[in-house]
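Example record used in the benchmark description.
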Amino acid sequence: MITAAGVSVRYDGSVAVDDVSLEVPGGEWLAIVGPNGAGKTSLLGCLAHLVRHEGQISIGGRAVGDMSRRDLARAVAYVPQRPTFPPDMSVADYVLLGRTPYIGYLSSESAADKSICADLLDRLRLAPLAHRRVATMSGGELQRLVLARALAQQAPVLLLDEPTSALDLGRRVDALEIVDELRRERGLTVVSAIHDLTLAGQFADVLALMSAGCIVAIGAPKEVLREELLTPLFGGAVEVIDHDGDLVVLSRRPLR
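Model output (structure tokens):
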């Protein structure tokens, strides 16, 4: 579904992504992990065709650079790390923006569009807030809101940049469970940058570990979440514990 070949990004001469190539089959969840500044957000921006880059990226066999904006919006839904919100818009109307790629220029939302959005508001526990102004919502509510808008696009590819960073622990799991449910229902291909290595290992099929713009390891969680790989990149004493099949990544305080 997603193919990247020789992708590089440079900012003022500094290399943010360095000759990255990868393939993500349809229906797979790939989590991009790594320390701050590793290039995770820049790589996601390339996949969304939002960051100028070298190399080739294709979605479903089509080069993203050859797609119209409407076609790209129907193929890829992107949740940025720091989205912007129209403060006076209602929650329900904001989610309806996700249906824009399917609405004609002189048309309005259909009953089917509204039904799709209402279902997502319910799944993400936002239905009671549907008539609230966006400006009145908390950080965690806003994060669920932008996820609802992206899912409303019903694009086959979902790109998520730190989608749970503003959520508490329970809400993080809930939000990722919803993404996983919809992935399985719709056959979505998901690529996400996740700073929480434990959650990344629980939800993603494949992890790509980045450092200094390069992918230094890629594979199943048990192949990537290894102390000898993580400790040099994250520093400190990293410990990986197998808890009933789930890998838990801990940062140990040095003994004094």
